[in-house]
């Protein structure tokens, strides 16, 4: 996609999504073809950032969790490399990524791999290694110092070139995402653009993409040459809002002749916005509140997250938000959620143990948020 698309043309292609009122409906078996991309965000249960995934990599845990993903007929996962761990030990990062890709391939799961993460705190040693459920944090990658100093971008280009040379034509990858949510900050967007062009220059056969907070961000990414568009919408105030957004996404995909994926979603809840106050039982997973709409729209998607754990970011975690489908032992938080996810493959036959209980290792997060409730 090489022709310049103006912002007015792009936003005209998307239409306008309106805000409705909260509503629910029971999960129903859906007709029509399966959704082509059925995925989840994947971080192991007791891991809080991407550095920890690779630094503390456990092959048995990865294989177990990918087996859980296959139980609900997922065919994709989304995760991020760690530039900081690669700088420390590039051979170990490559060896561990090779194992994960092979383990996923054995389950017929493709991997959407992101190279850099814009969300989180600075990647100092304390933030990278902190495993305390109350204070552990996602980490930005690379550091703010590197992001703001273009003379240092040659360091990160080496990482991008390594990845492109090793994995650019690897058919175990669904796509390569240059950065998650460079979003609205110009210095992050400029960095992501530079890394994207470095990656594109290597001419990989694997599709290239950018993690996008909204449909509107893609006005820039199409100009860069993104092969796949993305958007994130974790929390919706109503199913009608989601229905309209998904219609906009499908209209955009048709207009731009480009695939579009919803690469982060979670549930309906009453508040407006990502950092809205969490009310009542809205702290818990409820994928069944949105799965029928996504299934009906046929939009490729990744829910947050495969494994039951406290929220990734503190804006949610400090309010006691818990996400995820599978406990470490294979029980699910909600059978309705599991069947809603599985329905995107055309089946609604999942059976297993349902356990709506906080993991013992994370109870202090619940206690901090809710006291003795």
Write up what this structure looks like.
Residues about 1-10 and about 15-30 have low confidence and may be disordered. This protein has helices at about 5-15, 50-55, 60-70, 85-90, 90-105, 125-130, 145-150, 155-165, 185-200, 220-225, 240-255, 290-295, 315, 335-340, 365-370, and strands at about 40, 75-80, 110-115, 175-180, 210, 230, 235, 260-265, 265-270, 300-305, 310, 320-325. It is built from 15 helices and twelve strands. The termini are far apart. Helix 9 (about 185-200) links the parallel strand 4 (about 175-180) and strand 5. It has about 375 residues and is of the alpha/beta class. The protein has a single domain, classed as Alpha-Beta Barrel (TIM Barrel).
For the structure shown, list the relevant keywords.
alpha/beta, single chain, 15 helices, two-stranded parallel ribbon, 373 residues, 12 strands, 38% helix, eight-stranded parallel sheet, disordered N terminus, TIM Barrel
Structure summary:
This protein is of the alpha/beta class and about 375 residues long.
Top-tier CATH class: Alpha Beta
CATH superfamily grouping: Glycosidases
Stretches where pLDDT is under 50 for at least 5 consecutive residues are: 1-11, 14-29
Rg (CA only) = 20 Å
Second rung of CATH, namely the architecture = Alpha-Beta Barrel
Strand content of the residues, in percent? 5-15%
At CATH level 3, the topology is TIM Barrel
Helix and strand element order: HEHHEHHEHHHEHEHEEHEEHEEHEHH
How far is the first residue's CA from the last residue's CA?
A: 54 Å
Taking all residues together, what is the mean pLDDT? 92
């Amino acid at each position: 996609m090489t022709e310049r698309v103006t912002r007015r043309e792009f936003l005209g292609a998307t239409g306008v999504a309106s805000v409705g009122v909260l509503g629910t409906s029971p999960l129903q078996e859906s007709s029509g073809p399966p959704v082509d991309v059925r995925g989840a965000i994947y971080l192991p249960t007791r891991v809080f950032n991407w550095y920890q995934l690779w630094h503390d990599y456990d092959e048995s845990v990865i294989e177990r969790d990918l087996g859980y993903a296959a139980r609900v007929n997922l065919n994709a996962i989304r995760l991020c490399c760690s530039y900081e761990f690669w700088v420390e030990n590039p051979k170990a990062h490559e060896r561990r990524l090779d194992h994960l890709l092979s383990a996923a391939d054995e389950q017929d799961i493709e991997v959407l791999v992101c190279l850099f993460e814009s969300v989180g705190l600075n990647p100092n040693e304390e933030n990278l290694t902190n495993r305390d459920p109350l204070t552990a944090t996602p980490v930005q990658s690379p550091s703010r110092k590197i992001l703001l100093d273009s003379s240092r971008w040659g360091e990160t280009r080496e990482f991008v070139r390594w990845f492109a040379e090793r994995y650019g034509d690897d058919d175990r990858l669904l796509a390569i995402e240059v950065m998650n949510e460079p979003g609205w900050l110009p210095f992050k967007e400029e960095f992501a653009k530079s890394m994207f062009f470095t990656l594109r220059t290597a001419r990989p056969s694997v599709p290239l993409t950018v993690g996008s907070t909204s449909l509107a961000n893609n006005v820039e990414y199409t100009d860069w040459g993104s092969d796949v568009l993305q958007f994130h919408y974790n929390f919706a105030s109503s199913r009608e809002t989601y229905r309209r957004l998904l219609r906009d996404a499908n209209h955009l995909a048709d207009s731009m002749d480009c695939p579009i994926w919803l690469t982060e979603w979670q549930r309906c809840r009453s508040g407006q916005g990502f950092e809205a106050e969490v009310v009542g039982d809205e702290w818990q997973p409820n994928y069944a509140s949105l799965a029928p709409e996504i299934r009906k729209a046929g939009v490729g998607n990744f829910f947050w997250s495969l494994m039951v754990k406290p929220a990734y970011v503190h804006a949610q975690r400090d309010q006691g938000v818990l996400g995820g489908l599978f406990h470490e032992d294979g029980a699910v938080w909600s059978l309705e959620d599991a069947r809603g996810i599985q329905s995107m493959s055309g089946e609604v036959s999942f059976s297993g143990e349902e356990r709506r209980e906080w993991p013992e290792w994370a109870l202090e997060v619940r206690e901090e948020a809710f006291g003795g409730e």
